[in-house]
Amino acid sequence: RELGAERLDLLERVGHWPVPVVKIIENTPDAAILRNDILDQKPISSWTMGRITLLGDAAHATTPNMGQGGCLALEDALVLSHCLDQGRDTPQEALLRYQELRMKRAYRVVRQSWWTGKLFQLENSFLCALRDGFLQRLDPEKSVEQLACSDGFRTTVLPAARQGASFQISVPIGEFHGRIWATTPNGSHII
Asked: Three-state secondary structure along the chain?
C-alpha cells in the first residue's frame, strides 16, 4: 500500500520514536491523518467597534501550547456578561469596559503561550538539557497559581489538584467575583 504525502511527512518527523507509535501512524488510513498548521496572529489594538465586540479566539487567538484558549474565552464571557449586566453604562461603554478589563491578561497569556511553544520546540541538545533541568525543578501547583494570579486574578488550588484533578479561578471585577471551577477527570464540570 502506498503512503500518502501527509503520512510520509509525519513519519519523517517521528520515525525515530518508539516502534508502537510508528506502527500506529503506518496503519492509520490517509483520510484519518489530519494536519492543522499553527499560525500566529498579531494582537489587534481594539476588540470593540460601536455595539460589536469580539471575544475568545476572535479577539485574541493563541497558540495551543498552554491549553488556555478555551479558558480565556470563558473568562471573556464572564467579564462581558457582568459589564453588560451592570446597567450603569450604555452598551457601547460596557463593551469598551470589557475590552479594558480583559485585554492585558489575554495578551499576556497569548505571549506566554507563544514563548512556551518556542521553548518546547528547541532543537539544540544543550539548550534542551537546560530547559528540561529547569522544568524538572518547577512546582506544578505554583505554576497554576502563577498563571492565574497576575492581573487581578486569584486561584485556589483545591486538594484534589495535587493529583491533577481540580482547580478554581476567581475573576474579580470591581465588587463582583465570578468563578470558573473545573473538576477533572471523571468529575462534574462546574462553571
From this structure: CCCCHHHHHHHHHHCCCCHHHHHHHHCCCHHHCCCCCCCCCCCCCCCEECCEECCCHHHHCCCHHHCCHHHHHHHHHHHHHHHHHCCCCCHHHHHHHHHHHHHHHHHHHHHHHHHHHHHHCCCCHHHHHHHHHHHHCCCHHHHHHHHHHHHHCEEECCHHHHHCCEEEEEEEECCEEEEEEEECCCCCCEC
pLDDT tens digits for range 44-85: 999 999 999 999 999 999 998 888 888 899 999 989 998 998
Question: Model-level pTM?
Answer: 0.65
Q: In whole angstroms, give the CA distance from residue 74 to residue 148.
A: 14
Distance of CA 163 to the CA centre of its chain: 20
Q: For the CA atoms of 147, 74, 72, 66, what is the dihedral angle to 10 degrees?
A: 60
Strands 52-53 and 154-156: unpaired
**What's the length of the chain?**
191
Residue 27 — φ and ψ, nearest 5°? -95, 5
Q: Is the pLDDT of residue 19 over 60?
A: yes
How far apart (Å, rounded) are the C-alpha atoms in residues 57 and 83? 20
- List 178's β-bridge partners, or say none: 171
R_g of the chain computed on alpha carbons: 21
